[in-house]
């Protein structure tokens, strides 16, 4: 099944003369960039959006992965933080983020002669609340992984098969996803939560989130790691580090990490309006 879907992805890109990839450096868009480059060579271009919601460490990872693939890689600076529709953090915040991204990518692609803009949306993403997907579709962006029906697990399988070193990289959505809807997003808050997550990663905890609500940091880890986290960390030092970053309170989510957890407050009728 995986080899069949890889062949379908390769065939999809064979039908494109040129393609510009919206490339975040995450595993999904990295796989898309890899296949695009393997088929199109120098007729494929990866473009990364740089903004305060992207960790510098993740930007550097994107650069490294692009260099390893061999694909041409450029960076643009997006201005979603200048849009109150984004910084007010409504339930459809991601719509305005992706609108800003693709409103920059579309004229760039036209100017360079790229017929297609593609992204890393996979089949599982279509089953989640993703208002950014709507913004991309409105602008004619294609999602090869979703078109072929490639799930997140299959993304990792194909990536491993193709020798991508990031095949098991944890998902890392933008830092704005760490805040509950309705709480204003600022550059200072993004930097605070970003530094907190980098600190925990350097302690060896890779698959995590630091959710930020007011002055409180809530650490989310896979449930199986919670006990080890409590035992192995010097908790007073950890609390002091978080407080030095600007948090007053530091908590541990006993349910553990679950993708899209902040969406559980949304009502079905609200999702229907913004989906």
Description:
- It is built from 12 helices and 7 strands.
- The protein has helices at 2-14, 27-40, 56-69, 84-87, 93-112, 131-138, 144-148, 152-161, 187-202, 226-232, 235-245, 268-274; strands at residues 19-22, 44-50, 72-77, 116-118, 209-213, 216-220, 249-252.
- The strands form 2 sheets. A 4-stranded parallel sheet has the order 3-2-1-4, sandwiched between helices. It has a 3-stranded mixed sheet with strand order 5-6-7, with helices on one face.
- It comes from Limnospira platensis NIES-46.
- Residues 15-80 form the NAD/GMP synthase domain.
Query: How many distinct helices?
Result: 12
Strand elements, count: 7
Average pLDDT number: 94
What is the succession of H and E elements?
A: HEHEHEHHEHHHHEEHHEH
Low-confidence stretches: none
Sheet with the most strands: spatial strand order: 3-2-1-4
Domain NAD/GMP synthase: 15-80
Organism: Limnospira platensis NIES-46
Protein name: NAD/GMP synthase domain-containing protein
